[in-house]
Known about the structure:
By secondary structure, the chain is an alpha+beta fold. The chain has one domain. The chain is built from seven helices and eleven strands. It has helices spanning 2-52, 96-100, 107-110, 125-128, 274-281, 284-287, 333-338; strands at 59-61, 92-95, 165-168, 187-189, 199-201, 225-229, 252-253, 269-270, 292-293, 314-319, 324-328. It has a five-stranded mixed β-sheet, covered by helices on one side. Strands 1-2 form a two-stranded antiparallel sheet. A two-stranded antiparallel sheet has the order 4-5. A hairpin with a 4-residue loop joins β10 and β11 (324-328). The longest helix has 51 residues, at 2-52. The model is unreliable at 346-352 (pLDDT under 50).
Amino acid sequence: MVELIVVIAIIGLIAGLILSAIQYARESARRAQCANNLKQIGIALHSYHDAHRGLPPSVIWSPYGEPLGNGNFPIGVIDAITVGKSSAEDRVYANWLIMLLSYLEEGSLGMQYDSRAPISDERNAGLRSHELPLMKCPSDPYNGADNQYQRSESASGPGYARGNYALNAGTNRSCLEGFPSCDDGFSYEGKELASDNRRVWGSGLGGANNSTNFRTFQNGLSKTVAAEEIRSGIDAFDRRGVWALGFVGSSITSVHGNYGNKGPNQGLDFIQGCPRLQAKLGAKLETENMPCSFRKIPIEISEKATARSQHSHGVNLIMADGSGRFITDDVDANVWHFMHRRDTPAAQVNGF
Length: 352
């Protein structure tokens, strides 16, 4: 009997080790697939740059100005649909991923986009709800067709498909250059924010109606993050991880390092709609490591989001030269900050 018990215990131990090894191998394969997807995005960014002599804007905004901000907020941070406006008042058009579709061997899907209409228009429903495998990291269980993003409470039918990759907008503070107490804020063109604000850009890539060029990468392409992993929202009204929507948190990361989240999988994402998520999900946001917050200002805005993943201890990145990196969660905050800037001399990157 003793010998039988010992044999059973040994078999159980071996089975446990085998299962752990299988799970590790599966996650390694998923992480590799995720890194490969980012590699394809990096190649597409270079192809776009070669064809257009610049990188795609993070979002196309039309017409100019943000009337919902009462002259206090620029274009690109307030979602009119979320606050109850109709699609006729939506100013959000193509984002950087829509503009890359033809370079990602998804030209037929890209042709479905009607550039005369905002992304919320019914004419673009087929594109925005399309489940695009290349945009999904297989480690994220929330990026399926059963969890599409619903942009408003009155929305019905297909929503916005999820994605796991975002363009790096930079490390700037959540303010505009020239405004009181704003040091190292975002740059903008168009003094009257409510009516003629035409462009907004930071120290990363792209910007609202703004295209960056590789010539402006003072830090070097190999040391500047181009795109990185993000996680899909864990609820239908969680706007994070939406591949066809050009907002911070959806397909853009912003305010990294010293001014915001100190590294990947850390801190809070400041996104529009967070109060509703907190009321509905409560502690689940924390247990899922998807916490969010918002500033107590007259209208909610999406202003800060960091890289996140379901991998163990880190995230995949693609640098501007097309090289892939896996960065651990304990990366130095200063390194994380400077590697998300294109305009910082390499000498300041603390050996990265």
